[in-house]
# Entry
Amino acid sequence: MRVYLAGPDVFLPDPVARGVALKAICARHGLTGVFPLDVPAVQPASWAGLPEWRRIALCNEAHIRACDALIANLTPFRGPSADVGTVFELGFMRALGRPVFGWSATAEPFADRTRRLYPTHRDGSVWRDAEELTVESFGCNDNLMIDGAVLASGGTLEVDDLPPERRWTDLGLFERCVVRAAAVLATRGGEGDISVSDVHIAEEGP
# Structure
């Protein structure tokens, strides 16, 4: 089964090598990993004249549509929460009704990370930031919609507290997530597997 590998891994110093490593782990457990930098099998001619950022967005959406499930690196990225692009892709796959899985290299709850990184104060039973906005405090690893989407889809969320120097290099946690994903997907018996030829590729929008 084809699994889209969402995450800020594309911003690492050598994203191509990272993609190769992630896909090798997937293959070891019977899955075909699809990395965001992979070139889609089909690209409409109308994409050729688009700015690079739009081509990237369309390619990634095409990859997601052509996959059976998604595994997201939800390790906090430049703030207390996961990479916003990764979260969009997770939601996109969830809206397609397919399983989404997540892994995060920090076990610190979302609320604690927020309070550590930004000025906050207690207002009765809730925490608020400097703009008096409530700090979400449900004990989730990230925003409740992210954790909720993973669990509601039948996926799993793998979390560990890796030291900062290993957070973007250690793939043991990712492999643990792949093992769980392979087990969940195997129970589906391959039903509903998606062929690239079956996928609608979006033409240039307005």
